[in-house]
Amino acid sequence: MTGGVEQLTLPYDPTDRDDILEYARRLKDRSLLDLIGTQLAGHGIRGKGNFGQLLERHYFKYELNSDTRPDFVEAGLELKSTGIVPGKAGWEAKERLKLNMINFQSVHRETFDKSAFLLKNRSTLLVCYHYLKGQPVVDRVVRLVDVWDIPEEDLVQIEAEWNLIAEYVRSGRAHELSESITNYLGACRTGQGKDKDFVLQPFSALPAKRRAFSFKQPYVTRIVREFMARELRTEPARGFELVRSAEELKRAGGLERLVLHRFRPFLGLSEDEAWSKIGPEIKRPSPANKNRRQWLNNAILGVPGVRRIAEFEKAGIYMRSFPLQTGGRGPREDFPFKALDFSDLVQESWETSAFRSDLVNRFFVTFYRRDGEGRYRLEDAVFWGFPEGLLDTEVRETWVETVRAVRSGRYEDLPKGADTRLAFVRTHGRDSLDVAVLPNGREVPKVSFWLHRDFLQSVFEDIDRYPSRASLL
Description:
Elements: H1 17-24, H2 32-42, H3 51-59, E1 78-87, E2 90-93, E3 97-101, H4 116-121, E4 123-130, E5 142-149, H5 152-170, E6 185-189, E7 198-201, E8 204-209, E9 211-215, H6 217-232, H7 246-252, H8 255-263, H9 271-278, H10 292-301, H11 310-315, E10 318-324, E11 335-339, H12 342-345, H13 354-359, E12 363-370, E13 376-384, H14 388-408, H15 417-420, E14 423-427, E15 435-437, E16 443-445, E17 447-451, H16 453-461
Parallel strand pairs: 1-4, 10-12
Antiparallel strand pairs: 1-2, 3-9, 4-5, 6-9, 7-8, 11-17, 12-13, 14-17, 15-16
Helix pairs in contact: 2-3, 5-7, 9-10
């Protein structure tokens, strides 16, 4: 235990993992105000502040610190808290979970098994509270409390991503780090913002943004769903698992390389030729099925039908297929996201907005080109992440314009694809009856954010920026 607090004054044994967890579970279905209201009032707290800091200081009774070891050293537990919100399948994480800072001056000298990251975050006591915008933090009700030990198969993937982040630092590219280069373990920006958070890096004269390791939002949702299943004594709902064992993932060099290796033998094949290679025992869709390439992608991966893929859900990976123009280079279609909920949109901030959260996840796109005989052949399969330089400039401006138009009820002023050639807003409903309601009560066709086909063309063409592709294996 750190922070200089005498062990005898604590209402739990800081050396005993089970006792710490039992004490933490007293929070369930209660708020900090319910349990320690008099202490909070005595410190002049009126609902403002950070939930995690109040939890540490006034419930677990230790002072905040920047120790590189876990909060409960003897028990090997790090304490974290996170907001959760209702979703279609139960609770889901509101945002990523920030972990320890990335020390550019030392991370390049570490190995993963002895790293400060693993020492601190191998086992996490996670307190999940129901987040309601505008509600004082002392009134937030805790819904889930449990310990997350990183599973072995996740640890293999996280090790590969930690090594990637460390390699950026070793090669003098810490200023190029972005959350979008990884799947589970992010390198998120941290600090006050507004260009105040640059630090020195060891192998380049260019300053780099201050960053912390984080579990990305879809991965935190996976943790939350696991906690829910434990509480209900059921198996968590999972999609079809691509990875058969942690050893298979390690041999492949991570999730992306495993996926790309499965697509590599199918490059250049037509859809019919690919199905023949897969085998007649696998059910195929009709040629008129709009999702037929999704079926084919899944079949290549070894996933029957159009079932959900567990690893893609855990990482928040978008998988889509795009036809390329005959005799040309560019995709024929734009890239849609889910329909916007105007009531949620106008309450968001850009940094934690749903659209930004979507764009810092990874994408997996297969490109099919139509040949001279009208058959579509698999041209390439590409993993890519959205460039942070575009994300927090041009895309942010599109988001700001969208929020401004929605708040003022000016549906006709939503940013259009012809204006941005990058991110834009377009209708995304099933028919004319599929409508949404603006804050002023006006009913309008449902819309969503889209990525322009010109941007997708740059993903297909720019091998240097987007090198994680089957054709380069």
